[in-house]
Amino acid sequence: MIEGILIGLTTALTIQNILMVIVGCFFGTIIGMLPGLGPMTAIALMIPITYGFDPATGLILMAGVYYGAVFGGSTSSILLNAPGVPGTVATSFDGYPMAQQGKAGKALAIAAWSSFAGGTLSAIYLLFMAPSLSKVSLSFRSPDYFALMILGLTAIAAFSSKGQFLKAMMMVVLGLMLASVGQDSLSDITRFTFNNMNLTDGISFVLVVMATFAMSEALTIILKRNDPTSAAKQVSLTELGSIKINKEERTKMYKTIPRSSIIGFLIGVLPGAGATIASFLAYGMERNLVSDEEKEKFGKGSVNGLSAPETANNAACSGSFVPMLTLGIPGSGTTAVMLGALLGFGVQPGPRLYMTNPEIFWSIIMSMYIGMVILLILNLPLIPYIARILAVPKNYLIPLILFFSVTGIYVMSFNNFDIYLMIGIAVVATYLRLYDFPMPPLILAFVLGGLMEENLRRSLLLSNGSWEFLWDRTLTACILATTILIVIWHIYKTLKKKI
Amino acid sequence: MNINTTKIISLLFFIFSAFYLYTAYQIQVFAFDENAPFNARTFPIYLGYAGLFFSGLKLILPDANTIKVDHKNLEYKKTVILILIAVIYGATILKVGYFLTTSLFLFASYYFLGERRWILMFLLSFPFVAAFMYLLHGVLNIYLRDPFLQLIGVMG
Questions:
Q1: Number of domains in chain A
Q2: Which residue of A has its CA nearest to B144?
C-alpha cells in the first residue's frame, strides 16, 4: 500500500494535476451553485475536455469538479433553499433556517468545514478499506437494497417534521407516484403518460426539485409577504452574520463529523445508494443521537442537523468511488458519468485496476485529499462574497430564483411542457407547504422510486412472487427490523407527548 | 370529525390515489407478462393502495396539530400575477427566443413585485440575461435557441 500511496502522490502532485484539481474545484463550485446544474451536468461538460489529457489527469479534474459541485450545491441549498443536487437536499433542512436567522455566514462555514472533514476522513477510509469494502458491497442483494430504501424513506418521514408522520408518508407515496410516470425500465411500457409524448421519458429530477424547493419557496415568500411572522424572517435574510464557529458549535461538530463520515462512506460504497441516501440517513441518525433539547432545534437551524448531512454527502462521494474503481459499478449517477469517461479512456475498472493501472487508482485517492484542502482554501475566504446573494432585495431575488429555475429546466429539455409542468407542481407544492406537508420526503421518494421498483422486481422474481424475501436473509430482516423500530419509536414518542 | 383544510387535502389525495390505482390497473402489459410475479403494473398498484391507506388514515384519525392559515394576510394577487407571467414566459420562450422572453419576464416580474428603479430593473434584466446567455452559450457551449437574435443577426 505504501508503494501505491507513493505512486499516487507522484502522479497527483505534478503541477498539471494540482492545477486540474484547482480548476475542477472552482468550476464545480460555480456550476453546483446554479440551481439545475449539478455535478452530473458539470462532469458531463468536462468529458470532451478531459479526452485531451491522460486518464489519471482527466479523472483528477472530474473528481475536483464533483467535490466542488457538491459544495456549490450546498451553498444554494443554504442560501436559497434550492438544492440543485439531490445529495444536498438534507443540507437545506437546517442550513436554510440558519440563513434565515441571519447566520448565513456561519451556516456556510459549518458546511465548508463539515464537507472538508467528511471528505478527508472518507479519503482515509478509502485508502485503508477499499479492497475489503468492495467485497462487502458485493454481498448486498436486491432484497437488502429494497429494505434499505424502505428504511431511508421511513426514516425521513419519521424525522422530517414533528407530529407530521402521516403527512410525510403521503408525500413519500406522491414522490413514488411521480417517479412511476413514463416508460417502465424493463418492458418499455408507458405508464401514466395519458398519450402525452413529453411524459414518455418520465419527469426529470431537476424539474421536481426546482418546483418543490426553489420555485415554491419563491412563491411562498411572495404569498406570505404581508404575514407579520414571515416579515421578521425576511429582514434577517439580509444579514450575513459571522463566519466564526464558536467553541460550543465546534464541540457539537466534533461529535457529529466522525459518525456521519462513517455512515456516509459506508452508504456511498453501496452501488446505487450514493450521497442522497447517505445524507438523509446521517440526518436521521444524528437527530436520534442528540439530546432532547438539541432535537427540538432540528429543522430550525441546528448545527448538528447541518453538519451531519454535509459530512455524509462528501464522505459518500469518496465512498462511491469504491464500487466504481473496484467493481466497475457506479455508486451514483455522477460516478456513472465518470465510469463512462473512464471506459472512453480505454481503462476497464474492476478488481484488476490496482495491478493494470495503479497510477490511476492511487492518484485519484490522493487527489481526493488534495481536492478537499483546495476546496477549503478556495471557499472559506469566498464565503462573505457568496453570502452577499442574501442582500439582494426580495423584489429582485424572487424573479431571479424563478429565472434560474425556468432556465435550469429549459436548457435540459428545450420544451414548454416541462416549464408548465414545473409551474403546476410548484403551485401544488406551495399550497401543500402552507399546511405543513413536508417536501423532502417527496424528493427522496422520487429519487429512489426507480431503484426501489427495480429491486422489488428482482426480489419478487427471484422468490417466485413470494414476499418471503423480506425475512429470508439476515441482512434484509435486520434492516426491516430497524425500520419497524423507527416507526414504533416514533409512535411511542408521539403518544408519550400526548399523555 | 373536524373538517379542516388538511382533511380536505387528504380527501383530495385519497381521490387522487383511487384514480391512480384505477389507471394502474388499466396499464397494458404483454400477454406473457400478465401472470408474472412482477410486471409493469405491480409497483403502481402497490403505490395506489399505499396512497389510499395513508390518506385514509389521515382522514379518519383526529388531527393533533391543526394548521390554521390566515388567508387575509396572504398576497394572492401578486402570486397569481407572477405565476401568469411565468406561464406566458413558458409559452413564448421557444417561439420568440431565450434572450427577449427572459429579459421581459424578469423586467415584468420586478415591476409587478413593486420595483420602480427603472435603471436597476433594466440592468438586472437585459444585460444580465445577455451575460448569463454568454456564459451558457459561449463558455459552456450549451445551445440556446433564439429566433429573435437570429432575426436581428446577433446569433448565427
A1: 1
A2: A411
Cβ atoms of A294 and A462 within 8 Å: the answer is: no
* Beta strand extents in chain B (DSSP E only): none
Length of chain A: 499
Q: What are the cell numbers at A136?
A: 462487502
How many residues make up chain B in this entry?
156
Sign of CA dihedral A33, A37, A40, A43: negative
Q: What is the DSSP letter of A330?
A: -
Contact between residue A429 and residue A214 where contact means Cβ atoms under 8 Å apart: no
Across the interface, do A423 and B50 touch by the CB < 8 Å criterion? Answer: no
Closest chain B C-alpha to A117 CA, distance in angstroms: 31
Residue B102: per-residue pLDDT: 93
Average pLDDT score over residue span B104-115: 93
Domain extent for A86: 2-498
**The model's pTM:** 0.74
B47, A153, A454, A337: CA torsion to nearest 10: 130
Q: A183 forms bridges with which residues in the sheet?
A: A190
At residue B1 the predicted structure's pLDDT band, cuts being 50, 70 and 90, is: very low
Asked if B41 reaches chain A (Cβ–Cβ under 8 Å), the answer is yes
pLDDT in tens, A67-104: 788 888 888 788 877 776 667 888 888 888 888 888 88
Q: Would you state the pLDDT for residue A381? A: 80
A154-190: pLDDT as tens digits: 877 776 655 678 898 999 999 999 999 999 988 889 9
Q: Which amino acid is at A69?
A: A
Q: Please, what is the angle between helix A89-100 and helix A104-138, to 10°? A: 170
Look up residue B29 and give its amino acid.
Answer: V
* Conformational region of residue A349, where left means phi above 0, alpha means psi within -120 to 50, and beta covers everything else: beta
CA gap B103, A6 in Å, rounded: 54
ipTM above 0.90, yes or no: yes
The label of the residue with cell 439531490 reads A86
Q: Which of B9, B10, B73 sits opposite A226 (nearest CB)?
A: B73
Q: What is the DSSP secondary-structure string of A263-331?
A: HHHHHHHSTTTHHHHHHHHHHHHHHHHS-HHHHHHTTS--HHHHHHHHHHHHHHHHHTHHIIIIIS--S
What pLDDT score does A228 carry? Answer: 59
Tell me how crowded residue B15 is: count the other CB atoms within 10 A of its CB: 12
Q: What is the pLDDT of residues A139-151, one digit of tens each?
A: 778 898 888 788 8
